Amino acid sequence: KTFKLFCDGKTTGVFQFESAGMRDILCRLQPSRFEDLIALNALYRPGPIQGGMIDDFIDRRHGKVKIKYEVPELEEILKETYGVIVYQEQVMQIASLLGGFSLGEADLLRRAMGKKKKTVMKSQRQKFLDGCKMRGTESKKARRIFELMEQFAGYGFNKSHSTAYALLAYQTAYLKSHYPVQFMAAQLTSEVSNTDKIVKHLAECREMQIRVLPPDINGSDLNFLATGSDIKFGLAAIRNVGGSAIGSILHSRDEIKRFSGLYEFCEKVDLRAVNKRVLESLIKSGAFDSLGHSRKSLVEILDRSIENGQKTQRDRLSGQKGLFLESGTASANGSDEDVPDRGEWPDRERWAYEKEALGYYVTGHPLQDFSRELKKFSKFTTADISEDTCGREISIGGMITGLRELRTRKGDSMATCRLEDLTGTLEVLIWPNAYAQNRSLIENDIPVLIRGRCETDTKGEVRLLCSEILHLDSLWEKAVSKASIQISLPTLDPNKISQLRSVLSEFEGQCPLEFILSKAQDYRVRVLPGEQFLVNPGPAFIAAVEEIFGENSVSLYTES
Question: What does residue 229 show for φ and ψ, rounded to 5 degrees?
Fold first, then answer.
C-alpha cells in the first residue's frame, strides 16, 4: 500500500515527495523498492534535473536504455542505481576499488571533483590511472571511468543524507496509506496557523474522499479529530477563539455532556472568555449547526442569549434562582426550544461568513458554480504550479484574495494578491499595464481566470506575473469569437449521431466545430464539418454533448 501511494503520486504531505515535479517523477518511475526512494531524493535537484539524469535514470529503470558497465567490477557499486553514478559515496567506492585509493584519499578526490579544483584534479587523475593500471584495468577504460566520475561528481549527493530523508518519507507515506484519516487530521492540526497549507490539505482530503466536518461545540476538540472516516474541525482553527475560550467550552461540556442550545451555552461557559466576538465566530464557522437552528437565526438572538447568560451567572454567584428558572435551559428572557426561524443566509453569504471565521471555505465554495468554466478554460490548478512551470504561460482560475495596491517608483499603480482555488493558493503580481487594463475586475472574492507567466521570486517561491484577467462569468461570451470546439466521437452509432445533430441544431452559433473519430489506438481522424455546423459553446451545449458521448468528449480551445 505504501509503494502504491508513491507510484500513484499521491504524496501530498509526504516528507520530501510532495512537490508537483516530484509527484510526476514518481508516476513515471513507479518505485518498487526503498533504494529507488533514496535515489529520487538525491536526483531531484536542479543540477541532475537540468542535466537529464532523471530521465536517463527512469529510462534505465524501465529497460528503455541498456545498462552498461565499463568494467564488470562497477556492477557491484552501480547496480542499485541502474549504472548511473548518483551518490558521492559511489565516486569514493570506485576510486577505492579500481584506483586503490584509501577511503580518506577517495574523500579528497570527491571534494576536489565537487569543487572542480583543476590543479588537484590533475594529480588525482594520474594517481587513479596508475592505480587502475596496477589492478589490471586497461588505460582507455580507466580514462573513461574517471571522466564519468568527474562528470557525475558535480551532481553527486550524499547517500547517507538521502537515505535518512527517504526513511522519513517512507514512514510518512506508510502512515498516510494505512491511517489516512488520522494522518490528515494530524496534518491539518500541524498547519492550523498556515491558511495556504490548510487549503491545500482540505483539497487533499476531498481527493481522498475524507469528509472534513465543520467545527461542533458538542463534538470538536482543541485540534482536528479523526472520527471514523471523517475529520472534525478543531476549535483552535476558528479565528478569534483563543485558548481560554476553548478551555471554558470544553470544561463546561465535560460537566453537562452536551449543550442543548445557544441559551444554555451562554449560561454555562465563562462569558468573560467567550465574549460576543468569540460567539459570532463560533456561529459563522458552523459550530452550532448540530443544534438544529440556522446560523442566521442564532446571530439574531445572540445579544439576548448573552444577556440571559450574564444574568443567570450573576444570580448563580449570588445564590439566587430566578422566579421563572426551572432549569438551566429556560429563563424569562428566552428558551432554546423557542428560537425563531429566520431562514438561512444565501449560500455565498454563508460561505463568506464561514471563510471570515475560519480563513477558508469548508462546507462549500463559490467556485463550485464555475466547475465547467474551470474545467474547459483552466488547464492548471494551484496544486500543479511548481518550479517545473516556471517560464511557461498559463491560464488558471480562482478567487482573488488578499488584494494589496502598491505604487511603483514612478508612482504607477500595481497590485499583488493571492489566487485561491479548490486546491490551494498562488501569489499573483499585477504590473501597472495589466492593472490599468483589468482594474474593474481586480477585487477580493471575485471569481476570475488569470493568464500570465510563472516565475520564482527572490525567496524561491513560484508566483504568477499577470498579463490578463477575465471574469469567469464572461468566459463563454468571449469564447464565441475566440474558440474552436472538438467533439470526440468514440462511436458512429446512428442513434447517437442523430441525437448529436439535434443538439447542434439547438445550439447554433458562431464557433467552428471539429470531430475527432477514433478507435482505440488504431486510428484517429479529424473531420471539419464546415460552416453549416457553427455552435454556441456554452455550458448547456457541452452538457448535452457529454450526455451523449461521455465526460470529456468536448474540448474547447481559446486563443491565449
Answer: -95, 5
Cell of 271: 462569558
At 198-245, the pLDDT tens digits run 888 998 999 999 999 999 999 999 999 999 999 999 999 999 999 999
3-state secondary structure 290-315: HHCCCHHHHHHCHHHHHHHHHHHHHH
What DSSP string runs through 198-215? HHHHHHHHHHTT-EEEPP
Contact between 442 and 430 under an 8 Å Cβ cutoff? The reply is yes
Phi and psi at residue 444, in whole multiples of 5°? -65, 145
Residue 522 pLDDT: 57
Give the least confident one: 160-164, 411-415, 432-436, 477-481: 477-481
Q: Which H or E element spans position 115? A: helix 103-115
Contacts of 145 (CB under 8 A, 6+ apart): 70, 71, 74, 94, 98, 132, 137
How much is the mean pLDDT over the chain? Answer: 88
> Which backbone phi and psi does 487 adopt, to 5 degrees?
-115, 120
Query: Side chain identity at 392, as an amino acid letter?
Result: R
Extract long-range pairs of 4-10: CB within 8 Å, 24+ residues apart.
4/177, 5/173, 5/176, 5/177, 6/31, 6/37, 6/173, 7/31, 7/32, 10/176, 10/207, 10/208
Q: Under DSSP, is residue 453 helix (H, G, I), strand (E, B) or coil?
A: strand
Question: How many CB atoms neighbour CB 229 within 10 A?
Answer: 10
| Lowest mean pLDDT across 312-316, 352-356, 380-384, 550-554 | 550-554
Q: Give one DSSP letter per residue of 313-363, joined into a string.
A: HHHHHHT---TT--STTEETTEEGGG--------HHHHHHHHHHHHSS-SS
pLDDT at 523 over 70: no
Indicate the SS3 state at residue 555: strand
Q: What is the mean pLDDT of residues 508-530?
A: 75
Name the band, by pLDDT with cuts 50, 70 and 90, for residue 20.
confident
Distance CA 500, CA 529 (A): 13
d(CA 516, CA 322): 79
Cα separation, 385 vs 419, whole angstroms: 12
**Which is nearest to 358 in space by CA: 281, 254, 276?**
281
Measured CA to CA, the distance from residue 287 to residue 247 in angstroms comes to 16
Residues 6+ apart with CB under 8 A from 393: 451, 452, 453, 467, 560
The single-letter DSSP state of residue 234 is P
State the Cα–Cα distance between residues 313 and 269, nearest whole angstrom: 9
DSSP 8-state assignment for residue 440: G
Task: Output phi, psi for 552, to 5 deg.
Answer: 70, 15
Determine the 3-state secondary structure of 187 from DSSP.
helix
pTM of the predicted structure, to 2 decimals:
0.77
What DSSP designation does 366 have?
Answer: G
Q: Is 122 exposed, middle or buried (0-12, 13-18, 19+ CB in 10 A)?
A: exposed
